[in-house]
Amino acid sequence: MKKASKHLLAVGAILSLGLVLSTTQANAAPAPSKPEVQTSTDTTEATVTLKQSEKEGAIKIEQTPVYHFDNLEISAFSKDYTATSVEKNLTISNPGFESGYNVAARITDFIQKAGTRKGDPAASKLNGADFSITTGTIAAVEAGNLSGKPETFNDIHLNNTDTIIMNATAGNGLGRYSLTHDKSAVKLGIPGGNKVGSYKATITWTLRNVPA
Prior knowledge:
Layout: H1 2-27, E1 60-63, E2 66-68, E3 79-82, E4 85-87, E5 90-94, E6 101-107, E7 111-112, E8 124-125, E9 130-133, E10 137-140, E11 151-152, E12 156-158, E13 163-168, E14 175-180, E15 186-190, E16 203-208
Antiparallel strand pairs: 1-5, 2-4, 3-15, 5-14, 6-13, 6-16, 7-8, 9-12, 9-15, 10-14, 11-13
């Protein structure tokens, strides 16, 4: 029986070894190769045609600023006053015209209106008044506007003839652009010899669809 048992163990060992070898050979089989990736490309187009807007029309002034010099103390000496506030800014709308443009401004005399009742003062003018604008900032109204900016000028003095305020050369100033002046950049020089009172001047803004 002992011989038989040893023989069975030996056979069992051989069989076990055969299973291990057989398993090792099965695991070592090569993996199937991946198919070659093939690509194909083509091109197409996306087109757009822009025509003139019937609604927006031509290049135009969208809005203009209003300047205030309020509650200032008159002086016997010549004095430069700074604006107390500036409402809005100069905004130009250009729906795609590449002609360029310029914007000019002129100002009337500062007039104190005559009173409507007996004894009220007669109409009078603010003599020698000098309205001036220094550094301004031009920026596109829409952040995505990449057209060339118009230009502006420093130390502008307005009078009764047109003075260029803003200028866009050909191909620039497309879309909407605004010119902003901080109130500290707007001055009114008043010489001595004027009277106390409230005065008003009118500024006329003119846009021409050609560069200056």
